[in-house]
Design brief:
With 336 residues, this protein is an alpha/beta fold. The chain is 40% helix and 17% strand. The chain folds into two domains: 168 residues, Aldehyde Dehydrogenase, Chain A, domain 1; 139 residues, Aldehyde Dehydrogenase, Chain A, domain 2, CATH 3.40.309.
Length: 336
């Protein structure tokens, strides 16, 4: 199948997703939520919007123009997807198929339904993809592997796939840098970077770096406008649990009845909690960011001017070329 044909199929896929009927959309949302209660309507719609943005023709052409596609026989690429946010494995599936390879995918049990619906739509648009897609429980006999998981599972993947070309991704999270110069609009956007997907994504901000004299009053007020925790019992349970722990242990924290903010040098915060750490200078800040670099997916700030930086409100809207962990998946695939 020629590259132009593959591009056309994915462009059409984007249009089909964008034009789902109300009945289809409600069915997808209901089934996905039944499979994973963290997947609420807003989360699913946000994920689908991101995918339709990926699949705009001009975006695909711009992305693919940086790569040379070989005419050699395609390889079978085994893919293990995560299930922390809706359709989190789509970008990898897109990379494998549009680069001309065969996809053999083990879907997360937390995100099977949506992924299967997307792949089904794709094969309806371009039947030639049917022979190039296999959903499997075991990924034996693949030529290369891409896997995403926890730090513990990554060690297993690295051992098991050591003899094959591979990309193994571990736990990552995102941080934000505040300077005391943020407006209320900036903080509203940052709130979405924190709260969307209930903070379960690697691009969700779990920690703030703030100046020594930072006043959280405006931040805590604005965050209230982003999210009502009572709309989701799992989130509320996490909030109540963490709050009770802090109160029982007399641990200092901030609380606006929706989110907890606590000073901590750790990078990854529990659900419903955002950590913060103070910096005394730009040099001190850069040292802290360098210290945690291998665990940071992106750095959110007003100007988005740090390494792996994005501006407020953009953490959950990556472009096709914003690769997870900074590893160029398409370069890996085109060089197999």
């Amino acid at each position: 199948m020629e590259l132009t044909k593959r591009i056309h199929a994915f462009v059409e896929l984007g249009k089909r997703i964008q034009n789902l009927t109300l009945t289809q959309s409600e069915f997808w949302i209901r089934q996905a939520h039944n499979q994973n209660n963290w997947f609420i309507e807003e989360s699913i719609k946000l994920s689908l919007q991101g995918i339709t943005h990926f699949l705009e023709k001009e975006n695909l052409k711009k992305w693919l123009s940086d790569y040379q596609f070989k005419d050699t026989s395609p390889q079978k690429v085994g893919l293990i997807t995560a299930g922390n946010i809706p359709l989190v494995g789509f970008h990898d599936m897109l990379c494998i198929l549009i680069s001309g390879h065969f996809l053999k995918v083990k879907l997360s049990s937390q995100d099977e339904f949506l992924s299967k619906q997307i792949l089904k739509l794709l094969t309806e648009i371009e039947p030639a993809f049917t022979e190039r897609i296999e959903i499997a429980e075991m990924l034996k006999n693949s030529d290369a592997y891409i896997a995403t998981g926890s730090d513990n599972s990554a060690r297993y993947f690295e051992y098991y796939f050591a003899k094959f070309p591979h990309i193994i991704r571990k736990n990552r999270t995102s941080v934000a840098v505040l300077t005391n110069e943020e407006t209320e609009e900036d903080l509203l956007k940052l709130g979405q970077d924190i709260i969307s997907y209930f903070g379960l994504g690697c691009r969700n901000v779990a920690k703030l770096f703030v100046p020594e004299n930072y006043d959280f009053q405006l931040f805590m007020k604005v965050i209230e406008e982003n999210f009502d925790p009572n709309q989701h019992h799992k989130y509320r349970n996490n909030y109540d649990y963490n709050k009770s722990i802090y109160l029982v242990n007399s641990e200092p924290h901030l609380d606006n009845e929706q989110i907890l903010v606590r000073e901590d040098t750790a990078l990854v915060s529990p659900i419903s909690v955002v950590f913060y750490e103070r910096y005394i200078s730009e040099t001190d800040l850069n040292e802290k960011l360098a210290r945690d670099a291998e665990k940071i997916q992106c750095v959110v700030s007003k100007l988005g001017n740090y390494e792996r930086g994005v501006s407020f409100g953009k953490a959950q809207t990556p472009e096709l070329w914003d690769y997870a962990d900074g590893v160029d998946t398409m370069a890996f695939l085109t060089n197999l």
